[in-house]
């Protein structure tokens, strides 16, 4: 039986598809529309298992000239985009899985005291870190059109529309779809880090700026209804940080100059947004009655609120315009710029208190309170910029320096000698860096970055993350670099533990670091540690990485408690399963007990930012999901795993790691197969983001970033990194263990259940039939056995999962998620067959021959499949 959700969503998708069809007809004629419709029907039939339809698709594509293949690719990529927009709009309106309501239902059932709920709410500390690795394949100009289209869909679904109003909106929808069809969907060149940062600012301006205060208002109202209490006006349970313009790990385009530019552009955008808020407030706050404190600030003005706000508005305008002039190379007077949050909060709070004192609380709690809450959530810097750099770059600074000073080579010293040197210099009063030291360009860039940090205020920055950190000296080295560069405030430095070995060693590393008296005094009871999901999964497979992440977090919490340090774990999750992706609720509830006590910091990457926060209503829903999940986890912490559970999951993880590595690392056929069976080589030509697809240009598969690694396998629907070796390991351990204990783990342990839930989603996105089509056309005979073996394991794994979870079909417990993928599947199918045809043509060209039409068509299919799968990397 079809649900109301399915029927209405399908009707909207069909409507948008029909409008796109008319757009194509208007440009290319009826013959092309008929051709697209034939391909669409064949795609649906092929997805449903009709072999004749698959053969017909292949035959159509084989006969089409290159330019026509491009047109077909564009059409189906656009269909998928429209399908995603319809689903996003529908979810935001229906408020699927309404998070705050669900939370309060749980609270009521548990009969918890208001004090406990308030205590949990007061401890809320959610830091969303926007990153643009980026997996976002859609151009910003198209994102704007899609947002406008979503607004139209929201309006057209209103039952009170007149026929004239409906016709006008339908015309606008046709206009936007036509604009999108006639716009290049693939960037002509890679975005710069500054472009990425601007995109992040736009997400805040167009969505989060409205969503955050609205969400806090909704949360406040529910607390007041249920418990007769209110959120304090300075509550900031949700904050935002960014890596865009600060993440230089393997990205040569993120320089010190770029970081400074991004910091200033963020301040400019914040000044612009606060100027708009203040302009609205001074229009509304025309009252004359005020308390004495505000009267003292406003003097004898007839309109004291306006008198206090008007200078503030002028300073925001001066900041906005002054930064524009400064970046244009002009001499500017910075004396009137807004520098700190307090400069906004002090007069705003004066106005708020005065309104409350004079019986105008309803006005105080309107736009004024929204602005105050925006200051607490975003601040004058809009978001806090993290800095990320590889530990090797810091090591090279001190290696070059000690050689210059005649002290030997720091890189060759043992850990004890490195620590002794660093601690001695950290306590020294004299400068370490010689004035006449002519450092290399690479070292100079590291030092210049630290100087940029020193030249800006603490409020503009988040934390400094060290990639590939493995020793306490990695952290101390950054502290010394910051100190020597003039940073006079304690910037938090977070080691990032990425590989399996690094995760396993992380508790011992942090134990040694926190044992250092100087360091404990420096951090003043607060430590950040970043947990890497992408590289650990790429290194050891999904199950081994997941258990290593759990165990390391558990042990790190104990280490922090031992030293009486508040630990904030920073989760470097990607959007996909192979990079740690999970629905937020499941991800949070599978955390070890105590791991949320120091707050929750998590990356939001690429296209997942748009899917979660691209519209204000979607953003409110996403913020609610995070908030309710964290409050719930604090009120009802997950159980500590029993010893027998630990023993079994440890065995499963070890076998999963060995299974994964036997294929990926040890089988000599793996790399040759990977290169030909997936579009990995062609991915490098897609101008996705500002940073290269490999950390080292000369490196092989081991240097491939986790994003293209996942991306390549998702394109062929084998999605191999997310499941390889996992079910085989679980089955092996289960066969030799107490089945009752394994069943108990599934029933009572959120961590283990979430692993299987992840596989459930993965297996729904996987399609061995599609993978087989890639192999049939692209893989030489001597390697075809490899793909057959992988698909056999995939099919066996699906059967095992269904048996273990007592399900008849994949995603039986998530019919909406299942139907979401099914709606897009018919449009995805033609793109896969089209991509196979394109790969075959491109690879048959001479090595020196470039065919721009084929390459562009290839990029369109890559982007289209990513859009249809709802993830890239």
UniProtKB/TrEMBL annotation:
<dbReference type="InterPro" id="IPR033129">
    <property type="entry name" value="PEPCASE_His_AS"/>
</dbReference>
<keyword id="KW-0120">Carbon dioxide fixation</keyword>
<comment type="subunit">
    <text>Homotetramer.</text>
</comment>
<comment type="function">
    <text>Forms oxaloacetate, a four-carbon dicarboxylic acid source for the tricarboxylic acid cycle.</text>
</comment>
<protein>
    <recommendedName>
        <fullName>Phosphoenolpyruvate carboxylase</fullName>
        <ecNumber>4.1.1.31</ecNumber>
    </recommendedName>
</protein>
<dbReference type="InterPro" id="IPR022805">
    <property type="entry name" value="PEP_COase_bac/pln-type"/>
</dbReference>
<keyword id="KW-0460">Magnesium</keyword>
<dbReference type="GO" id="GO:0008964">
    <property type="term" value="F:phosphoenolpyruvate carboxylase activity"/>
</dbReference>
<dbReference type="InterPro" id="IPR021135">
    <property type="entry name" value="PEP_COase"/>
</dbReference>
<feature type="active site">
    <location>
        <position position="538"/>
    </location>
</feature>
<feature type="active site">
    <location>
        <position position="133"/>
    </location>
</feature>
<dbReference type="Pfam" id="PF00311">
    <property type="entry name" value="PEPcase"/>
</dbReference>
<keyword id="KW-0456">Lyase</keyword>
<comment type="similarity">
    <text>Belongs to the PEPCase type 1 family.</text>
</comment>
<dbReference type="InterPro" id="IPR018129">
    <property type="entry name" value="PEP_COase_Lys_AS"/>
</dbReference>
<dbReference type="InterPro" id="IPR015813">
    <property type="entry name" value="Pyrv/PenolPyrv_kinase-like_dom"/>
</dbReference>
């Amino acid at each position: 039986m079809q649900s109301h959700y399915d029927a209405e969503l399908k009707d909207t998708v069909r409507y948008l598809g029909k409008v796109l069809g008319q757009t194509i007809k208007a440009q290319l004629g009826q013959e092309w529309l008929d051709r697209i419709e034939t391909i669409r029907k064949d795609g649906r039939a092929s997805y449903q298992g009709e072999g004749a339809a698959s053969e017909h698709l292949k035959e159509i594509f084989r006969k089409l000239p290159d330019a026509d293949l491009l047109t077909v690719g564009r059409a189906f990529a656009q269909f998928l985009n429209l399908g995603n927009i319809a689903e996003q709009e529908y979810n935001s309106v229906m408020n699927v899985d309404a998070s705050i309501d669900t939370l309060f239902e749980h609270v009521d059932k548990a009969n918890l005291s208001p004090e406990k709920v308030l205590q949990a709410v007061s401890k809320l500390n959610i830091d969303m870190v926007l990153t643009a690795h980026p997996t976002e394949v859609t151009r910003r100009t198209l994102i704007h059109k899609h947002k406008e289209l979503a607004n139209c869909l929201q309006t057209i679904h209103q039952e009170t529309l007149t026929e004239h109003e409906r016709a006008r909106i339908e015309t606008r929808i046709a206009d936007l779809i036509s604009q999108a069809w006639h716009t290049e969907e693939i960037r002509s060149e890679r975005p710069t880090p500054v472009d990425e940062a601007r995109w992040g600012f736009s997400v805040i301006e167009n969505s989060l700026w409205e969503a955050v205060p609205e969400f806090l208002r909704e949360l406040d109202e529910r607390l007041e209804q249920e418990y007769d209490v209110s959120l304090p006006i300075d509550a900031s349970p949700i904050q935002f940080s960014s890596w865009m313009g600060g993440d230089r790990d393997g990205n040569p385009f993120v320089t010190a100059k770029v970081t400074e530019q991004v910091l200033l552009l963020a301040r400019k955008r914040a000044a612009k947004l606060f100027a708009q808020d203040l302009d609205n407030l001074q229009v509304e706050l025309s009252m004359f009655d005020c308390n004495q404190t505000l009267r003292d600030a406003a003097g004898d003005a007839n309109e004291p609120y306006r008198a206090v706000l008007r200078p503030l508005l002028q300073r925001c305008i001066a900041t906005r315009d002054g930064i524009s002039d400064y970046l244009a190379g002009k001499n500017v007077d910075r004396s009137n710029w807004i520098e700190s949050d307090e400069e906004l909060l002090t007069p705003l709070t004066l106005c708020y208190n005065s309104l409350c004192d004079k019986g105008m609380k309803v006005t105080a709690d309107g736009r004024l309170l929204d602005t105050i809450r925006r200051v607490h959530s975003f601040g004058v810097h809009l978001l806090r910029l993290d800095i990320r750099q590889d530990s090797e770059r810091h090591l090279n600074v001190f290696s070059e320096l000690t050689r210059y000073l005649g002290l030997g080579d720091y890189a060759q010293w043992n850990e004890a000698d490195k620590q002794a040197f660093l601690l001695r210099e950290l306590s020294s009063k004299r400068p370490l860096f010689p004035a006449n030291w002519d450092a290399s360009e690479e070292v100079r860039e590291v030092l210049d970055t630290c100087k940029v940090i020193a030249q800006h205020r603490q409020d503009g920055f988040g934390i400094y993350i060290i990639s590939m950190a493995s020793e306490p000296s990695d952290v101390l080295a950054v502290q010394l670099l910051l100190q020597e560069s003039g940073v006079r405030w304690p910037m938090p430095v977070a080691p990032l533990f990425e590989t399996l070995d690094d995760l396993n060693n992380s508790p011992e590393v942090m134990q040694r670091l926190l044992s250092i008296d100087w360091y404990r005094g420096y951090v003043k009871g607060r430590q950040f540690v970043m947990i890497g999901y992408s590289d650990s999964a790429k290194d050891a497979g999904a199950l081994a990485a997941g258990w290593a992440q759990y165990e390391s977090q558990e042990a790190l919490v104990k280490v922090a408690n031992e030293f009486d340090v508040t630990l904030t774990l920073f989760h470097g999750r990607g959007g996909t399963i192979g990079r740690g992706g999970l629905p937020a609720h499941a991800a949070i509830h599978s955390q070890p007990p105590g791991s949320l006590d120091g707050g929750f910091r998590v990356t939001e990457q690429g296209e997942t930012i748009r899917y979660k926060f691209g519209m204000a209503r979607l953003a409110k829903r996403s913020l609610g999901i995070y908030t309710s999940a964290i409050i719930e986890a604090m009120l009802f912490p997950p159980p500590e795993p029993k010893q027998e559970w630990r023993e079994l999951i440890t065995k499963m993880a070890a076998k999963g790691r060995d299974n994964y590595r036997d294929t990926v690392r040890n089988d000599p056929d793996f790399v040759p197969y990977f290169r030909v069976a997936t579009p990995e080589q062609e991915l490098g030509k897609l101008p996705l983001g500002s940073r290269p697809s490999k950390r080292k240009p000369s490196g092989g598969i081991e240097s491939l970033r986790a994003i293209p690694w996942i991306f390549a396998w998702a394109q062929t629907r084998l999605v191999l990194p997310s499941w390889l070796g996992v079910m085989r390991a679980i089955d092996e351990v289960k066969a030799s263990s107490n089945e009752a204990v394994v069943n108990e783990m599934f029933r009572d342990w959120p961590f283990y259940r979430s692993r299987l839930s992840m596989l459930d989603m993965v297996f729904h996105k996987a399609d061995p039939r599609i993978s087989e089509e890639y192999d049939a056309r692209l893989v030489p005979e001597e390697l075809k056995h490899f793909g057959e073996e992988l698909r056999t394991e995939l099919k066996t794994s699906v059967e095992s999962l269904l048996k273990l979870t007592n399900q008849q079909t994949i995603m039986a417990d998530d019919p909406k998620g299942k139907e979401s993928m099914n709606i897009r599947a018919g449009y995805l199918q033609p793109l896969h067959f089209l991509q196979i045809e394109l790969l075959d043509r491109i690879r048959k060209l001479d090595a020196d021959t470039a065919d721009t039409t084929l390459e562009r068509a290839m990029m369109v299919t890559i982007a289209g499949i990513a859009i249809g799968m709802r993830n890239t990397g």
